[in-house]
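Marked as duplicate of an earlier ticket. Keeping the data here for the record.
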Amino acid sequence: MSKSNQNESTSASEPSGAIPDQSGPADINQSEARATTSYWRLKLATASKLGKRAEGGIHYQIVTDINRHDLFISITGNDSGGYFSRELVPLPKVEACLAKCEAGKAFPSKALKDAFVGLSSNNAGFLAAILRSEGLLGAAPDAESKHIAIGNMGEWETALQAESGTQIELPDTGNGKAEASTEPEPPAKKTLSLPRKKQQ
């Protein structure tokens, strides 16, 4: 009998209940892929889009770390077309963006873009819609497409942290923070140009 046949016979004779060796590199990689970080989901809601012709809503969640120190906002869905970043946006980054805006003055949605790591052009507008839904921003009197700060961020945060919440697990990047996964931007449209006629 050849060595290959002997090996096949040995495998076939192993009892069906035998536990295979689980220390191989493939299993270690799978374990790493399943690593998660625990959070408390405090709110799951939908915000109305801000555009006059926009349809559907923006789905989002507000979570806090397991020790309830920091709040994060995450866009989770879009009822219609439009790419966005699904990352956890720390509240301090949102506050930093708002702090750069002149007090009492209207500002555009793009003022919030630096709160994100992802570069999707819809991120800032979707976040503005969420902040309006939460009562932290309002429409500017002279320009509906712009915003003014109207809510008390500290009171809002305190009220949310008082919620019991639901414990959830989110993918871990390996440094103890949840993964920031970004939707890809749609490919840019190419403009076709006709060749110029040669002068005779």
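See parent ticket for discussion. The mean pLDDT is 79.
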